[in-house]
């Protein structure tokens, strides 16, 4: 009869063997905190960053990038040519490209995908990333032409895709490499679950979703986690080192940080501000700070007094200490912004810069008729509910009060009410931000065009608009960047918005994760990531 | 009694109809819609989205369409998660909230009733003060403080639990404990108050004079009356606890319905708001009926009217 | 036949005492309740007048940042370098005001409503209770957003009016911005809390209704209003008092949830609820940000609790006579 100590010893031995077997099997499972629960996994039906990160595991575009997110690399297309006038792009697809269910991936798939994207009934929010650039696309979207053959997509043979543009768009390849709007979708699968132009049919469930990327969807537990497992049919499967990736829905960043500490996560989506200094001091090897391609600014409603007066806008812009804001309040590696475009964006950096100068600010205020801030009615600053926005707003309120004697009142609005106020221009000063969708300085200038849906400031400058369109037509990069310098100068002079800082993403990452590098758009090609214990 | 119940059940239909209608129109008047987004959608895209969801129809048409579908039990597709229907979302998440709610309720009742009864019997002794103070802690320490504290201690410091998630049975412990303690505090206070009211009544004195043991006096005679205020409170409280707690589900990343109640409003997810409101309303109405029945049972002087 | 009758010391009839006076006497004898009451009054005075003597609650010292209790700042500073003691006292103004006023509003409405429904019975009771059910089930978040949106103009008008209001040149409300919003806050919270109160009161009234003294009152010909307000409600007050002491903390914490929706107080003001919420997120790094606001919040609630218990005992006509 085995004694209790003998049983215990046997159990211990057994557990040790199992443990060793697991370690030898070396399952590489990457566990990521992914922010909010994704709305869907259909590349043509979503808009957010959490969705983007999952889509990059399940799909791949014609082009891809390297681990830094900056250098372009072949994806589904193994090579491409651009016509001398910059209007025709020819992509040569891989002969061995296939969907994860074994169906060959051909150029016909791309034609049908773009047709679906441009079908008005689908209501794809990112359709503009196609119809702004491709010849005939906008007309098809508006219903002005009904024959899709007249849109600038051609498939001369199953492995060649030809795209014809309206004007030479120098950053098109960057969009194609970074954004899921240009991904192909498995039309042969989608049509099994409903009409092809109906959004959000249940084709994206596990067991049904078919993609062309390094992983396939294994499990989707809503508001908990999404598991993807390696796709053996991916053309570059040999280079993929991870076996599985688990995306955890983490809505509360404090809870996420605790999950990281208990070892439930390898990488978090964000890190609470108050913990950044602690990590810097005690676990610097787990802290990752990435400059993020976006600018945080306060938008001015230039149609309402007192901000219709350029001098007052300038006074406000000059009387703020951005360095203190970034170092003492935010402390997340952000950098102060003295221009509306992001520095070192595809090699472009603005020369026109704001120089903080309290004396000059006071002078401008006096010149506008309010010496020392006297007589100036309170200005209302609108922000949406967030501790970060509130902290920044309180800081700036104190700075303006101290430096200029200007009374700024803070109003916090719930998200949709805040957006509504923005679209109806029901504000005087409003907190806002602009994150780039692709890596090119153009992304920071397009929103200030007159009548652009994202302008919302009432600011309109015909010279600015003219220069902007000219830039789109300029093929030579140096000449184009020269135009952008002029645009930056206009923006800094007229100040429809007051730039404050450039975003930075800070998150926790376990040192065992390798190959997850900081990228400007926070997209990380998974084939370069591995886990080394 | 059965006539009473039947009549109440009949009353629930107009009540629910009014609630659904009022909510339907309330959410349309709020600024911002399901497609209001940071990067403004172009007018063409917005038009197409609205057409797809029928939002471009006149409001009364939409209202009757919704009621029609409702009669078939179809709550519609969610606006925020369009590849899921509201029925699916509720079917997925309600069991989770129910489980968490029932566990918490069990803890709350066990702790709260015990503490309240002890405090009332040994009133103004150290037992009373201890029990009452412990109950006060449950009220003074909000869930968003208690939860992280428990996680810090049990999950991080001791390493025995996950920080969040809802996978194994261990994941149930900390959330249920957090939610249970807060409700236990309320129950304890109300029980103590209720029992004190009753313990001074003549019939209790009679029972004691007749020689009944203290235990019998309490459990057979006093408890029925003493629990009255608790029962009144528990009706809506149970509805609340069963439909989940927003704070607990956020802190512990629990895929329950509590969060949806709040976030659906924030997202202007019209159908999900209506679905959750309908569910909550049904629960409230049912539980109030149960409470009313229980009250009559507890106090023999009451009758069903 | 009796023995020699004892004569009273004086011929004047003994002065009667109303039950309220009885209750007051009993309350005064309850040491702990008195202690609770005194603490509450002290805290209220401290929050009302303290900020006049402390440092500014809004003045930032960004170079200092968050520091623990020290000589300059007795309770430490928050992440902007603002003095925590000042912020707690200033926040106390908001919390105590909101807690008291909203709870009193809920009390007044809830008690009357519940008593009338309970006493009336029949169809009126049914309709009144179903109305409570309906109001309870409506989504609170949306209701608040609607209020925020539709009452924004009137709120601003109130603010402007209050800002200009002066007592002999002293602009009393100058420092307090956003008073309109705070009033709206009371309304919103009161609108929700009275519902459960009404239900509890109705439950109590239903049992009291059957008591003999109510029958006696009816037999004496007292009118309905008099019976309800002078006989039934005072006897139902026990659980009501207890529930009120539970409502006040819920109201204070509800305010911090409402600040999510933009209905709380405007920055840089904050309430205890918001201070505690902020502190909870940073409790590992800056413990004082949670401990001090949480401590004073708890102290207030404990005092309230003891006072409430004492009140309940005092009002209970059947509690053991001394």
Would you write up a description of this structure?
The complex is a heterotrimer of chains A (533), B (305) and C (322). Mean pLDDT of chain A is 90; it is low at 11-16 and 18-24. Chain A has 533 residues and is an alpha+beta fold. Chain A has helices at 4-25, 49-58, 107-117, 128-131, 137-142, 172-178, 187-190, 253-261, 273-282, 310-318, 322-330, 358-367, 387-404, 415-423, 442-445, 462-473, 477-494; strands at 29-33, 63-65, 72-74, 77-82, 88-93, 153-157, 160-164, 215-221, 225-230, 244-248, 287-300, 335-336, 379-384, 408-413, 429-435, 497-508, 513-514, 530-531. Chain A is globular and about 75 Å long. Chain A has a 6-stranded mixed β-sheet, with helices on both faces. A 4-stranded mixed β-sheet of chain A has the order 1-10-9-8, with helices on one face. In chain A, a hairpin with a 2-residue loop joins strand 6 (153-157) and strand 7 (160-164). Chain A has 17 helices and 18 strands. Chain B is mainly α and 305 residues long. Chain B has a domain at 92-269: MetI-like (MetI-like fold). In chain B, 75% of the residues lie in helices and 0% in strands. Chain B has 13 helices and no strands. In chain B, helix 4 (86-121) runs antiparallel to helix 5, helix 4 (86-121) crosses helix 7 (170-199) and helix 12 (257-266) packs across helix 13 (270-298). By secondary structure, chain C is mostly helical. The longest helix of chain C has 37 residues, at 84-120. Classes of the chains: A alpha+beta (533), B mainly alpha (305), C mainly alpha (322). Chains A and B meet through helix 8 and helix 14 of A and helix 2, helix 4 and helix 6 of B.
Largest sheet of chain A: 6 strands, mixed
Q: How many β strands of chain C by DSSP?
A: 0
What's the overall average pLDDT of chain C, rounded? 82
Structural class of chain C: mainly alpha
Number of E-state strands of chain A: 18
Helicity of chain A, in percent?
A: 25-40%
Unreliable residue runs of chain A: 11-16, 18-24
Number of helices of chain A: 17
**Would you identify the regions of chain C where 5 or more consecutive residues have pLDDT less than 50?**
none
Q: So what's the oligomer here?
A: heterotrimer
